[in-house]
Amino acid sequence: MTIPLDIPLKIGALIFPNMDQCDFTGPFEALARVPNSSFFTIWKEIEPVRDLAGMKLLPDTTIDEAPQLDVLLVPGGYGQEALMHDEAVLSFIRRQAAGARYVYSVCTGALLCGAAGLLQGKRATTHWTAMDVLPLYGAIPSDERVVIDGQFISAGGVTSGIDGSLIVVSLLRGETVAQELQLYMAYDPKPPFQAGSPATAPAPIFEAVMERARTITEQRLATGRAYQASKANA
Amino acid sequence: MTIPLDIPLKIGALIFPNMDQCDFTGPFEALARVPNSSFFTIWKEIEPVRDLAGMKLLPDTTIDEAPQLDVLLVPGGYGQEALMHDEAVLSFIRRQAAGARYVYSVCTGALLCGAAGLLQGKRATTHWTAMDVLPLYGAIPSDERVVIDGQFISAGGVTSGIDGSLIVVSLLRGETVAQELQLYMAYDPKPPFQAGSPATAPAPIFEAVMERARTITEQRLATGRAYQASKANA
C-alpha cells in the first residue's frame, strides 16, 4: 500500500564524519525526488562533514532540530564506528524510528541501527565485510542486496543503496514513480568487470579488499561483542 | 598503458549550482581512491554549491587556483545550461584539457565540453534526453554507456558515471585496482525494475520522463544551434 500523493512526506539522512558519501548520495538521487516530499540532511551541527575520501557535505539541519521523518536513511562507512556509543546519535535514530514509516540503512549504517537497538530479530544486510557483525546485534544476516523486514529496510555495501532507494520509492509512491526515477537516472548499469561481490570477484581481488578492511572489521566485531555482552548482563 | 604507481596523479571535478550531484558523487567514489592520487573539487568560489535537488557540496579549491589535473571530471545536470556561455568556466575546461591525460564527462557534462570546443569530431555520449544536442557541437553520438575517444571519455546519464569511473581507474592504474574498488563499492547492481533506459522502460514511463525534460531539452538544442551557427559564420 503506497501513500496517497496528497500526503506530504519528510525524508532525511544522517550524515557524519568519515562516512562513505556514496551510501548517502546514491540514495539521495531518488529519495530527494519523491513527489510531494521534503528532504533533510542531518548532523549534530550545521558544519561541513568530511567523508572518508574527503568530500565535503553541508547538512541542512541538526539531530535536535530535525522534524519527525517518514523515512530515515542511515549511511555507513568507517566513521560509523566512532558513533556506536554516541548516545546523542543513537537516541536520534531510536526517536526517529519510533515515528517513521521506514528506517533505511545502507552499508554499515546497519550497525548504527543495531547499536540503537533496532535490529533485534530483524532480517538485515550490510557491507559484505561486516556481515558477521550483524548477529551480535540480534539480526538475522541475509546476503540479498536489499532486505525488507517490516519497517526496517537495509541495503548491502555502498552502491547497493541505489537499488534499495528505488525500492523505498516504490513503497512510498508506487512503481510508476520509481521507474520514472530509474529512467531519469539512466540506471541501466553495465559494470565493466565481474568483481562486484565476493562471489564474483577473482580470489586475489577478494583477499586484497578483505585484508585492507581487517582492522576496521576487527573493531566492528569487538564493538558488537561488547554490545552483546552488555545485553546478556542487563 | 597504465601509469606507473610511483607517478602521483591529480584528479579533479568541476561542481556547479544546479548540477546533478550523482554525476559527480558516483564517479568520486572510485576516482578519489586511486592509489597515489589527490582529488580536488572545484568551483568559482569556495562556497557551498547546491545541486538540483538541494544537496549542498563544498568545493576544495577554485577554477583559478586548481592545479593542472591528470583527469578532469565534468558532471552535468540542468545547471550545465547556465554555464554554456560562461567564459571563465569554458576556458578552465579548455586549459585543463590541454594538459590533462583524460577529460571525463558524465551526463550533460558532455555539452559543457562541447561548448568548450572539445567535441569536434569526437565520439561521445550524454544523457539520453540530450543525445540530439551532441552533433551540434561536432560530436558523433553513441548510445554506448561509456565512450572512449582518445583523451575524451564520456558516460551517459547520471548513474552511468559509476561504470565510466571504473573504466577511468583501469586506464590510470590497471584492472586489478579497478576491480578492488568495484568490490569495495559492492558494485554488483540489481536494479529492481526494467526501466533504466529508453529501450527497456515501458512506453508510458518513457513518455512521462521525456515530457518532464522537454523545456530543458529545447533550451539545450537552441544553445547548440546557436553554437553551430556561430562556428559556421566564423
Taken in chain order, the helices and strands of chain A follow as EHEEEEEHEHEEEEHHHH
| Quaternary structure annotation | homodimer
Distance between the termini of chain A: 39 Å
Q: Note the overall shape of chain A.
A: globular
Radius of gyration of chain A, Cα only, in angstroms?
17 Å
What is the number of E strands of chain A?
Answer: 11
Structural class computed from helices and strand pairing of chain A: alpha/beta
Low-confidence stretches of chain A: none
User: Could you give the order of strands across the largest sheet of chain A?
Assistant: 5-2-1-6-7-11-10
- Estimated helix fraction of chain A: 25-40%
Describe the largest sheet of chain A: 7 strands, mixed
Please tally the helical runs of chain A, counting DSSP H or I stretches of 4 or more residues.
7
Describe what is shown at a glance.
Chain A has 234 residues and is an alpha/beta fold.
Describe this structure in words.
- Two copies of one chain form a homodimer.
- In chain A, strands 5-2-1-6-7-11-10 form a seven-stranded mixed β-sheet, sandwiched between helices. Chain A has a two-stranded antiparallel ribbon with strand order 3-4. Chain A has a two-stranded parallel sheet with strand order 8-9.
- The termini of chain A are far apart.
- In chain A, helix 2 (87-99) links the parallel strand 6 (71-74) and strand 7 (102-106).
- The first copy, chain A, has helices at residues 21-31, 87-99, 109-115, 160-173, 175-184, 203-212, 214-233, and strands spanning 9-14, 37-43, 49-50, 56-58, 61-62, 71-74, 102-106, 123-124, 140-141, 146-149, 152-155.
- Chain A is an alpha/beta fold and 234 residues long.
- Chain A has seven helices and eleven strands.
- The model of chain A has no long low-confidence stretch (mean pLDDT 97).
- At the A-B interface, helix 1, strand 4, helix 4, helix 5 and helix 6 of A face helix 1, strand 4, helix 4, helix 5 and helix 6 of B.
- Chains A, B: This is DJ-1/PfpI family protein.
